[in-house]
Amino acid sequence: MFKFIVLLGLVSSALCASLSSPAIDPEWEGFIVGGSTASAGQFPHQVSLRSSGNAHFCGGFIINNRWVGSAAHCTVGRTAANTISVVGTNSRTSGGVAHSTSRIVNHPSYNGNTLANDISMVFTASTITFNNLVQPITLGSAHVGGGVSATASGWGQTSHPGSAAANLQFLTKPTLTNADCRARHSAGNAARVFDNTICTFLRAGAGMCMGDSGGPLIAGGTVIGAVSWGIACAQGFPDVFARISSHRTWMINQM
């Protein structure tokens, strides 16, 4: 049976968790395998979620001037005091504007074992100021099927094993239908491809991995997914995201 990971990187040699009990560690760092380096302002909605010690642990995306979207497995168990949203920089460690957190809202039906409803929202303590490097992105409302070109972005290594990249990486790949996604996974992992998830797949050697969790999947100028889980790392299996259109009403109701 293949092992799956939530896409945070662990500062240890243990990269994978069992299917029944995925390890979730906020001190992981990670990467997009087979991606390219983003230019300044290319992804102005991108957020780096960091600890109070400035350690990047997950990605996120700007919804409006106070709300950031991410994955619940990134934020469950975290305190507001130890969660910072950094906007306006492609650097994993410097630049940009840091916003402390007023509160964190995790989806009430999030399941840490199956990663069902893996979506969360962070309410910043200060207003996010928009400029050419900082912009919100629209929550996708339409159901996205297969064959749609979509772009994911995140920080970290460009190969595995390797050291974390200094700058934001991105990867464009087509979406899959959920039926196709399930067919490409083992039976155990296919059971975790819920109707309210969306998958992408390009090829072996190109995909998401630890540290990209919570980051945006965008298509047509809207965010259609938040990075949830995958098979470590870019081994030829689809990556799985929380489907934004399925969670959009819940997200709007929190604001």
TrEMBL record:
Signal sequence annotation: 1-16
UniProtKB keywords: Digestion, Disulfide bond, Hydrolase, Protease, Serine protease, Signal
CDD domains: Tryp_SPc
A single MF term (Gene Ontology): serine-type endopeptidase activity
Database matches in Pfam families: Trypsin (PF00089)
GO BP terms: digestion; proteolysis
Peptidase S1 domain mapped to chain residues: 32-255
Residues passing through the membrane, by range: none
SUPFAM superfamilies membership: Trypsin-like serine proteases (SSF50494)
Main location group: secreted
Localisation: Secreted, Extracellular space
InterPro entries: Peptidase_S1 (IPR050430), Peptidase_S1_PA (IPR009003), Peptidase_S1_PA_chymotrypsin (IPR043504), Peptidase_S1A (IPR001314), Trypsin_dom (IPR001254), TRYPSIN_SER (IPR033116)
CC terms in the record's Gene Ontology section: extracellular region
Protein family per UniProt: Belongs to the peptidase S1 family. CLIP subfamily.
Protein name per the record: Peptidase S1 domain-containing protein
